[in-house]
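Look over this one:
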Amino acid sequence: MKKIKIIPLTITAALTAAILFGGWFTYRHYGVEQPLDRVANSIEGVESAKVVMSNGHVDIKVKLASDANLGDVYRLIKNKGASEIGNKELELSATAAATDTSVTSQSNARLDKVWSYALFNVAESMENRKYSGIRDTMSKLSEQFPGVTVTTDMDEDNVYISMHDGDAAKYVVLPRQPAMLGAWPNA
């Protein structure tokens, strides 16, 4: 009976694990994240983009130009990056591009206040799936807060809200959840 040598076996197992996991991380970075990063950065209106991937989830943080359409950016990233995204869930986090060298979001206290005024009605509209209520709420806020412009957009995945106040901007992406099928309790 042969004796198993522990040191060569341990070295072989460690090298195999390093090659497998190193290859997986390299593929994920160079084969998926970096091409998706290039796709996002090539879209008109995107100042910069950073892709972060996890199991079943792709989060793209973008800084948008002031004239960018949030819904169009989301749809273009989803369509052009479909092969990299695969069946993972795409989440887009958007901020306005900074006019100076700071990296902070360009939202301001006034836009945060406008959003807090709209939050209850928007949540109610999302809960009841009456999405036109979001547009109505946001247009009323534009009248209530002069100088604030609001645009809304919607597709099969999300509702997009863009609020601008001069150079400041606030972007909100609200995921639309499909209606859950269920049985009546008394059926």
